[in-house]
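Observation: inputs received (chain + protoporphyrin IX containing FE).
Thought: call the complex predictor directly.
Action: predict_structure
Action Input:
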Amino acid sequence: MENKEEDKKVDDIIPDVVKETQAWKAVFGDLIFGEFRPLSPFNSLMRGIAKLMQLTPYNMSVGGKRIILYTFCLGGLSVFFFSLLACTGAFLMIYYNPDVNAAYANIEDMRYIVPFGVLIRNMHRWTAHLMVLFVALHMLRVYLTAAYKPPRELNWVVGVILLVMTMLASFTGYLLPWDQLAYWGVTIGTSMGANAPVLGAKGPFAILPPGGDVNSVLLGGTSVGQPTLLRFYLLHAIAIPLGIAGLMGFHFWRIRRAGGVSGPL
Ligand code: HEM
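Observation:
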């Protein structure tokens, strides 16, 4: 009861013109205001755990089977690939040192000396390619089934950020072997940053000086070197995976809030 009155007070502050906009409804529609109180993340989690532990009966319905053929489980497979990348990446971290004098030799050791090193490394590399492919296919499926329409438009936007982060994870990982391919690939990739509009020093409408634009921040200097390797390593092994995991949680919660996956039911 108290909560409802609190909500009402907050609700009154926001003008109706704003609340009527599609953007407002997409972001806050069923989240905060209105009669329809959402299941809290905690309740969703408890329900999930109860299902997992078979505390509630679980039957595969005809609808469930149809959903698999409708989504091809492309999103679920992307989650699977992400988990596999996290596990194999954790093993690679044991032998890899982000130091320009050691990185290449570490990779060679993994190929020729470390037991199962070549298997784990190749699993990591191939799974990374597969994840990019499957996230793109999942996006195509969502588009073709028009699942981006209300009430799922916010989840589409979250998905686009997930796609960009997946590609950034791939790009930052590319430098780590510290071979010629990695060095020149990343030199080309980061120099695109220098030509980006507004934030790149050589791009149109540049507002930042050559030493302080987006390219220099990525490189940690003016060319690919030790600071670049360390930055890419931290982005690749910590910041981007944490960001992806957090956003995935939000993505799944939004699916539940939309009443589950849209489908041919
Ligand atoms: C790391 C990347 C991603 C993961 C792990 C992921 C995961 C999932 C999962 C497990 C589902 C449930 C249905 C299914 O499996 O198809 C789903 C649904 C959905 N995803 Fe993603 N997704 C990702 C990226 C994207 C992208 C790039 C977009 C679009 C730009 C997107 C938009 C959506 C939407 C709108 C739904 C709801 C679909 C419906 O209700 O039919 N996701 N996602």
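Thought: report the result.
Final Answer: The domain at 62-257 is CATH 1.20.810.10 (Cytochrome Bc1 Complex; Chain C). Residues 32-37 have pLDDT under 50 and may be disordered.
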